Amino acid sequence: MAAKRDGMGMKLIGVITMVMALLLAFAAVPPVTAQDEEAIAPLEVYALRVSNAPERSRLVVDLERTTQFAFVSLTEPLRIAVDVRATDYDGEGEGMPAGEGMIASYSVAQIAPDRLRTELTLSGPAQVQQAYVLEAFDDQPARLIVDLIGDTEENFGRRAGLDMGASGDASAADVELADNSNPPGTSNIERDTKPLILLDPGHGGADGGAEADNGIQEKVVTLAFARRLQEILINTGRFDVALTRDNDDFLRLEERVQLARANRANLLLSIHADAFDDPSVRGASIYTRDEQATDMLDHVLAEQENRVDLLGGFAPPEAEPAVVDLLVDLMRRDTRRQSFVAATAILDQLRPSIFVRRFPQRRADFYVLQSPEVPSILLELGFMSNDQDAENLASPEWRDRVAEAVARGIALYFDGIDGTL
Ligand SMILES: [Zn+2]
Predict the structure, then answer these.
(1) Taking 50 as the threshold, does the pLDDT of residue 29 lie above it?
(2) Helix boundaries (H) for 146-296
(3) What is the pLDDT of residue 220?
(4) How far is the CA of 369 from the centre of ligand 1 (A)?
(5) Domains by residue range for the chain, with CATH
(6) In whole angstroms, what is the distance from residue 131 CA to residue 145 CA?
(7) How many angstroms is it from 75 CA to the middle of ligand 1?
(8) pLDDT tens, position by position, 118-152
(9) pLDDT of 263 strictly over 90
């Protein structure tokens, strides 16, 4: 079964769990530090953007660092208010969203010393489809992303009622803020239990990637595909789905890897459509990391501290270097195995839907696939250098069909994980 882990994978996980349990048993319990509830740590909101698309509206808040947030539904007029724990914001107090859609206008106000509220006035009932905070990486700030989709009048009214009941007065500044989770009543989003899928449209900005004879650029195709796949995956209700780039930005490869690692993505799917000298070569293929490849991250991992970090607190800082080595190695091997299982699951769904290359499941030394702890796959949708593939890649209907297949593969892969862990 493509989506199931095999016995070896289970054994590896078993070993990791056992070793970690042993380490934990001997590790000193760290002292619990009391949080000073009264102190308000300064936190700046750098910028915020509100945009409408045909079926989705989005609020993006650029933050000095990750912070807590909450959202509530309000009536008369229909609004969704998004609060973030922040102390400073120098931008505009109100504005109109880019594009036409569910958000008619918005206003921003500091409603408490540590709370900035963005009130989205709606043109009709809407709900928060997903909301999550992304860690800062490199020169990109931390970000809160809130996606809205349409809803029924009845559902909206029910949520507004619950929000009012949960907070006493939802319009006041007393809705509880939380890390990546929703306050009571606001929505059925359970961020903590949903896997995060990070889609990585290849290229961008000055780097157009491969170009077809019909003038279409790889960077455009990969972004269109990633957006469609994001929509399909979100609509399953099972995943949070982020993009490494949601516009024509140029992102370095290490930024893409860092984004996956910093946010502890459960799967990184990099999307490409490359070119080849021989124009007759066509079809989709899927890559996982070559087992023989030397990781460029090795120099980072050479530091004992970083390796302990990587193990996410499962190894005590005073662990013997040899033990840490063993754990890192097990983790890396398990990640590669999971990547392979996910790639197989996706490929199994792709085969009946589209033309795939001969030997479509491949391994290569791609930089973007080297996260030691994030299962990572690179999907080549087809060849821009082949006329038939280029025509397909330009077709929204074709991309729809392929995105549906990829989404099924991803869901099956996670079914396998759920079924065995
Ligand atoms: Zn490419």
Answers:
(1) no
(2) 153-167, 218-235, 253-262
(3) 96
(4) 13
(5) 44-189 (2.60.40.3500), 194-420 (3.40.630.40)
(6) 5
(7) 47
(8) 999 999 999 888 888 888 877 788 999 998 988 89
(9) no
Give the Å distance between the CA of 389 and the centre of ligand 1.
14
Distance 201 CA to ligand 1 centre (A): 9
pLDDT at 421: 36
Cα of 275 vs centre of ligand 1, distance in Å, is 8
pLDDT per position as a tens digit, 210-255:
999 989 999 999 999 999 999 999 988 889 899 999 889 888 888 8
Neighbours of ion ligand 1 (CB under 5 A): 202, 209, 272, 274
Report how far ligand 1's centroid is from the alpha carbon of 360 (Å): 16
pTM: 0.63
Given pLDDT bands bounded at 50, 70 and 90, which one contains residue 75? confident
CA 279 to ligand 1 center in whole angstroms: 16
Helices (H) and strands (E) in the chain, counts: 9, 16
Cα 405 to ligand 1 centre (Å): 20
Query: How far, in Å, is the centroid of ligand 1 from the Cα of 383?
Result: 10
User: Ligand 1 mean position to 353 CA, how many Å?
Assistant: 22
Distance 402 CA to ligand 1 centre (A): 17
- Phi, psi at 105, each rounded to 5°: -165, 170
Query: How far apart are the CA of 404 and the centre of ligand 1, in A?
Result: 21
What sections of 110-179 are H helices per DSSP?
153-167
Which residue is it, tokens 């006041």? Answer: 172
The CA 385 to ligand 1 mean position distance, Å, reads: 12
Looking at residue 207, the DSSP 8-state letter turns out to be B
Over the stretch 253-262, which tens digit does the pLDDT of each residue have?
888 998 898 8
Residues for the chain: how many in total? Answer: 421
Helix (H, G, I), strand (E, B) or coil at 234: helix
Give the single-character DSSP code of 30: P
Give the closest residue to 83 by CA, choosing from 41, 121, 112: 112
Question: 31: Cβ–Cβ under 8 A, 6 or more apart, which residues?
Answer: none
Q: What is the mean pLDDT of the chain?
A: 80
The DSSP call for residue 74 is E
Distance between Cα 2 and ligand 1 center (Å): 26
210 CA from centroid of ligand 1 (Å)? 6
Distance 151 CA to ligand 1 centre (A): 37
**What are 362-417's pLDDT values in tens digits?**
888 788 888 888 999 999 999 999 999 999 999 999 999 999 999 999 999 998 87
| Residue 266 vs residues 164, 223, 292, 358: alpha-carbon distances, Å | 35, 20, 23, 29
